[in-house]
């Protein structure tokens, strides 16, 4: 058995892969694959209705929220958000907690004024500053944060309090990994390639009232949320295969019992790995405990030679995708929805043996 700890694209549930394999040549009795039929035909339209309904059910989405399935990745949204929602003289507020929120704010700066209201860069992204230390963001076009920092391995344990302006969140590496109170947000977005599918699709959920703010001239049509809502996310030809994959994963999440049990499982997986790291005296994670990511567990070994050996031996033992991000080095175990608990157990067992053999 291979366990794939890649940060995204990432492991997919085996039973979903089997289903894709089975229906690859003849999807829903169309005589063709999903990639070969019209996205405007009745079979595809029926399918995307199911995808939307499943997503609404999983998130318990109120009727005043729209769901969009777009291309361009989360990075596309880094531009789309200010272009849609921070026109004119407005300032957008950003919280910096790691590499991804920083990149989001830098991209926004190309289109609007940006105010960084909190940054933990000076402390090497090891904790998140509490809200009473943030600067004032009243009057901002919106407040943006990144729920889970995929590279630096830290996560907001709760949704920050934000009642005065629309709250916007990049959930690329945490979407649908636990229950979510969507009513706290104006907009959330996520590339689907970690927790809910493969690369090529971006989920955007937006509250109706924000659609009215969008400047009709300055926003490129393909990124215009109002236009995409009107066109059911099909203003251009959509990425049909990634959309299909997300549809299958949402059905799988429902079969797993929904976000309550899935969230509890994700919590258990991360807890047992951190617990072992902390007691090992060999592996080290330096993120403040209150903000440790459930999704991306980063750790180091005493020196980089040992890390190289660890990664090589892990791969030899069927534990792949563990290399840390190039900017940080070390090891990163990504534990998204599709990673079973047995995968984490196998990793911990391997880590124990490695300590005995090589320390
Ligand atoms: N935000 C976060 C939190 C991410 O982890 C990533 C990808 N690793 C991105 C944004 C960029 O996503 P994409 O490649 O889909 O543009």
Please, could you describe this protein's structure?
It is a single chain. The protein has ten helices and 13 strands. The protein has 359 residues and is of the alpha/beta class. It folds into two domains: 242 residues, 3-Layer(aba) Sandwich (Aspartate Aminotransferase, domain 2), CATH 3.40.640; 101 residues, Aspartate Aminotransferase, domain 1, CATH 3.90.1150.10. A seven-stranded mixed beta sheet has the order 2-10-9-8-5-3-4, with helices on both faces. Strands 1-12 form a two-stranded parallel sheet. Helix 2 crosses helix 7. The longest helix is centred in the last third of the chain and has 22 residues. The structure holds 4'-deoxy-4'-aminopyridoxal-5'-phosphate. The site of 4'-deoxy-4'-aminopyridoxal-5'-phosphate (PMP) has 11 residues, from helix 3.
Relative helix content: 25-40%
Give the CATH class of the largest domain: Alpha Beta
Integer count of domains? 2
Q: Which regions are unreliable across 5 or more consecutive residues at pLDDT < 50?
A: none
Task: Give me the secondary-structure category.
Answer: alpha/beta
Biggest sheet architecture: 7 strands, mixed
């Amino acid at each position: 058995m291979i366990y794939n700890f890649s940060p995204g694209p990432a492991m997919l549930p085996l039973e979903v892969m089997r289903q894709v394999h089975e229906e690859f040549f003849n999807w829903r009795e169309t005589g063709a694959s999903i990639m070969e039929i019209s996205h405007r035909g009745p079979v595809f339209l029926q399918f995307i209705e199911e995808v939307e309904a499943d997503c609404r059910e999983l998130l318990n989405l109120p009727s005043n929220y729209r769901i969009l399935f777009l291309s361009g990745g989360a990075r596309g949204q880094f531009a789309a958000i200010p272009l849609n929602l921070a026109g004119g003289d407005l300032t957008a507020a950003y919280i910096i907690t790691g590499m991804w929120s920083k990149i989001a704010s830098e991209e926004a700066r190309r289109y609007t004024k940006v105010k960084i209201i909190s940054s933990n860069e000076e402390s090497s992204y090891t904790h998140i500053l509490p809200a009473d230390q943030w600067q004032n963001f009243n009057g901002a076009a919106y407040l943006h944060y990144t729920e889970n920092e995929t590279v630096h391995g830290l996560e907001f344990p709760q949704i920050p309090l934000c009642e005065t302006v629309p709250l916007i969140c990049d959930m690329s590496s945490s979407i649908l990994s636990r229950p979510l109170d969507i009513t706290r947000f104006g907009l959330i977005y996520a590339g689907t390639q970690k927790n809910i599918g493969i690369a090529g699709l971006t989920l955007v959920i937006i509250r109706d009232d924000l659609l009215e703010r969008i400047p009709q001239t300055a926003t490129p049509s393909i990124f215009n949320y109002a236009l995409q809502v009107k066109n059911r996310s099909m203003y251009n030809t959509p990425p049909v295969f990634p959309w299909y994959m997300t549809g299958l994963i949402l059905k799988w999440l429902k079969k797993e019992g929904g976000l309550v049990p899935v969230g509890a499982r994700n919590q258990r997986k991360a807890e047992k790995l951190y617990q072992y790291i902390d007691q090992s005296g060999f592996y080290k994670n330096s993120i403040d405990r209150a903000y440790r990511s459930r999704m991306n567990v980063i750790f180091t070994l005493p020196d980089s030679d040992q890390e190289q050996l660890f990664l090589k031996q892990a791969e030899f033992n069927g534990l792949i995708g563990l290399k840390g991000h190039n900017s940080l080095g070390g090891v990163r175990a990504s534990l998204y929805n599709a990673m079973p608990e047995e995968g984490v157990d196998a990793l911990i067992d391997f880590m124990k043996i490695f300590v005995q053999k090589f320390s």
